Structure to design on (148 residues):
């Protein structure tokens, strides 16, 4: 079993049936899972609550603000793995609906795109790092149905 590291947060952001994917900058040892396409991830700062972390990380990495987002679900802790170091950790996973697709990425990511649920399901330009991907896909389907 891989080594356990600190908890963090994951933000899955949808807009009109499309899911925000970020390409993690390829800087091994500085960025977890460098080079992959995935959802937004972030680390909690000392004394910070997960719901504070997720909004801070979203704004830092995308410039989307809390007022641009509607919390749809708090999916609880999901187990993830760093594909390069084989470390594992739990992230508090949140699903959001965004009012905007205007994203401005920071240094942690090299690109972004809005993908369909099918692209995520079929791993087209998306790298699964969740141990229980089926739960994430079910949440995405539920979220997409709510938006239609």
């Amino acid at each position: 079993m891989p080594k356990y590291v600190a908890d963090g947060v994951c933000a899955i952001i949808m807009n009109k049936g499309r899911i925000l994917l970020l390409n993690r900058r390829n800087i091994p040892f500085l960025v977890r899972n460098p080079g992959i396409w995935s959802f937004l991830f972030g680390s909690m700062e000392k004394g910070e609550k997960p719901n504070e972390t997720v909004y801070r990380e979203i704004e830092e990495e995308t410039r989307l603000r809390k007022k641009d987002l509607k919390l749809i679900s708090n999916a609880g802790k999901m187990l993830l793995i760093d594909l390069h170091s084989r470390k594992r950790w739990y992230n508090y996973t949140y699903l959001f609906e965004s009012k905007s697709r205007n994203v401005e990425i920071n240094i942690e990511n090299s690109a972004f795109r809005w993908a369909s649920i099918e692209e995520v399901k079929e791993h087209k330009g998306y790298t699964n790092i969740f141990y229980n991907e089926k739960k994430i896909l079910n949440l995405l389907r539920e979220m997409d149905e709510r938006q239609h």
In short: Helices lie at 50-62, 117-121, 133-147. The radius of gyration is 14 Å.
